Amino acid sequence: MRQIIIDTETTGLEPSQGHRIIELAAIEMVSRRATGELRHWYFNPEREIEEGAASVHGIRWERLQNEPLFFEKADEFLDFCRGAEWIIHNASFDLAFLDAELARAQKPLCRTAYSAVFDTLIEARKQFPGKRNSLDALCERFGISNAHRTLHGACLDAQLLAEVYLALTRGQESLVIAPPETKTAYRQIDTPKHIKMLRASAEECAAHEAYLAELRKHGSCLWPEP
220: Cβ–Cβ under 8 A, 6 or more apart, which residues? Predict the structure, then answer.
């Protein structure tokens, strides 16, 4: 299965208010392994970045004014991600921004490109109800090092998200369907020929039975009476 881990950074929280994507990262994974293929872009949003957003990712508009506009890279993004399952943390946020940018660029929307969307935030809430399920919280829960994440960044966050996804779904890796003969409670085990078996003597058996009889006087015993 081909999957794409996606993360964005934006000028603010609401695409309906004209906020734009300023950074986009997409990392390819096939059969639950990163292939080394990734796409990473910065974009000129053609507008100021809200102070609250800048405090999260540390990016200012001055830094972006020589970067390409989103529509210039839209086809490259769609071509790279087309046909894969998209893995996103809080997918509704990123997809809303991506759809707004694609619509502005007069390109097909996200649903025409992905085969499915896996939202790690929704999955985390299922597995850990009532707990914090931010990317940082999940990194801490799964022992994923994020000490270098002093600010949000699409490329770094996508790399961390790939590890979080694998940890959230690691049960898939250990799924084993046992053949019918191994489902019984006990199986006959062939004793290796080099192991010498010692049987209890009559005196040892008698002592054992006496011990069990004493146990039965004081309560139940797992071993049945002879």
Answer: none
- Between 160 and 199, residue with greater pLDDT: 160
pLDDT tens-place string over residues 27-48: 999 999 999 999 999 999 999 9
Residue of 149, 150, 151, 133 lying closest to 141 (CA atoms): 133
What's the pTM?
0.73
CA 3, distance to chain mean position in Å, is 12
For the segment 47-71, what is each residue's pLDDT rounded down to a tens digit? Answer: 999 998 888 888 888 889 999 999 9
Choose among 21, 54, 56: nearest CA to 40: 21
Cross-sheet strand order for the sheet of 33-42: 33-42, 21-30, 2-10, 85-88, 116-119
**Nearest of 23, 27, 25, 26 to residue 45 by alpha carbon:** 23
Residue 182 token pair: 């191994």
CB 24 within 8 A of CB 40: yes
Domains in the chain: ranges and CATH: 2-173 (3.30.420.10)
Q: Is residue 200 classed as helix, strand or coil in its secondary structure?
A: coil
Look up residue 30 and give its amino acid. V
Positions marked catalytic: 152
What SS3 state is found at 138?
helix
What confidence score (pLDDT) does residue 175 get?
30
pLDDT of 194 reads 52
Q: Where do we find the tokens 């790279």? A: 80
